[in-house]
Amino acid sequence: MIKTSSRCRLTLAVLVLTIVAGTVPVHAQTFSVLYNFGTNAGDPQNPTYPGLVAQGRDGNLYSTTPYGGTGYYGTGFKITPTGTLSVLHNFNTDTDGYAPNSGLTLGADGNFYGTTTDYGYSGATLFKITPSGSLTVLYTFSPDGFYGPLPTAPPIQGTDGSLYGTTVGSSGCGMVYKLTPSSTFTTLYQFDSTHGCHLYAPLVQGTDGNLYGTTNSGGTTGGSGTVFKLTTAGKLTVLHNFVGTDGSNSFSPLIQGSDGNFYGTTSNGGSSNLGVVFKITPLGKLTVLHDFNGTDGQNPDAGLVQANDGNFYGVASAGGTLSYGTIYKITSAGTFSVLYNFDNTHGATPQVTLFQHTNGILYGNTYFGGTGSPCLNTSCGVFYSLNVGLKPFVSLLPTSGKVGKTVEVLGQGLTGTTGVSFNGTAATTFAVVSDTYLTATIPSGAKTGSVTVVTPGGTLTSNKKFRVTPQFTSFSPTSGPVTTSVTITGVSLTQTTAVTFGGVKATSFTVNSDTQVTATVPSGAKTGRIGITTAGGTASSSGTFTVTPAITSFTPTSGPVGTSVTITGTSFTGATSVTFNGVSATFTLNSDTQVTATVPTGATTGPISITTPGGTAKSATNFTVT
User: Fold this and answer.
1) DSSP conformation class of 526
2) Which of 252, 344, 506, 534 is most enclosed, with most CB atoms within 10 A?
3) Cα distance between residue 49 and residue 112, in whole Å
4) Cα→Cα distances 494→447, 448, 490, 533, 618, Å
5) Sheet architecture: strand order including 437-441
6) Model confidence over 184-228: pLDDT tens digits?
């Protein structure tokens, strides 16, 4: 069953409001309540997990709440970085669903995407909402038990343009789904208790193109949940089964750090059973970075954000010195510090992952606390900011692409921009659409790295590296034995780190230019596609390179019928025949570089030949039949 709002670890009796609000300086940072939910009639109320916050092209922040609005069925709202709030949409169970727990994600079209949980009303929905509040239902989920499929998280937009999302499941364990740009809905993977159960959090697409996420329960080690990888074709790999001591019951989304590892939290488990912060490699090696002990926070429902200082920031839903939750900072090595203790007056029970605006400031909201009118028989929560002195930057959508593609750039102070560069290569085409939004075309010669924007106020640097995806155009020759030099042509090849022939790495290659690489066919190479990997990704040839066999020697060089001859060379795997001057012989394939054959009856003096799927090799000298 879904985790209900009653799981807040604070009794309603404890949540007594004090009529105080405003800005609270905390050492070198400033915490500010920007808005008390419930201040005005029809306000958003009680934002809960995942509740993702997104920055729009206009520089404002967008999200949802499962309660509040004119019908109390939830809202979609916009809030400026200084705290002016507008309700964009009031949900109605009869037309567009109920209880949007999800928050929103920004799409490449400038619109936002989210889901409604429904809780057994007219049907859970996947929706699109414009910055002005026009909502379109993209898909209505089929029933799954009394409460329906329970999609609590917003979808993400993959590099293929499709939307990928999760559901908690009511009668089942939940699923990962896909909605294509042409509106084709597919269940990508249906979970079971063995592989994990109940997916509360959104997915993240890794730099390898795969989808990564967490389950709240299930798995093979006591039902504490799992971390998984899923290809966009639907192949699942369980990377880790939580065992309790390393965490249990994750509600948090994963984030891929700048080091390539993934980071997240669990609400329970750890040495005190109060939750942990963890790191996990793409191959599944998990490290607990921090065990919550109560005084530094407990039961984190939210995930982490990696700010542009390289540190991770998060919130714990309870605990701290005042028992209402904390904001914390943690490094990739696990150095932990509490930045703020919630006091109920300025918010309580933060469940939503922090978001860093391009102005450098962190934003979030709380489920309870604040000075708004009573909601859920208690307080309504707040929307807050935490300024820790981080520099403004620009963010990119998407964060990878091929030369010639258009990239969206979000920021501030962009009016009057004089230059945009991709790791030092200037974009010849860019357009400033507004003070908070511009577009740029990836230039020829661009390399994977930071994007910089030169504005009248200074140079802004992207908070993430932009990965320039390589392109494979052609190769020549199309066949040859081991040691053959193959010329590969394409685009964005400067940062090449590996070349493979049928999956086997070439031990020698030379980057000649951004459009050409020369590689030597390696020992053990197999007939198949040529792959080229750069700092920006991997590209494969559309055609196949045929690895032909070669005979380098044989011993003995003469003998009668029945003699055993050892033949050495390359690319013998898959050999289908051996002949002595055209007469077939019995043979044994010892390795890719060795075959043993018996001189057959009827053989005459002449060359030895070996045939494989890659072709036929003939010895340079004759075998003499005595």
Assistant:
1) -
2) 252
3) 17
4) 7, 10, 10, 10, 38
5) 395-397, 406-410, 437-441, 430-434
6) 999 999 999 999 999 999 999 999 999 999 999 999 998 999 999
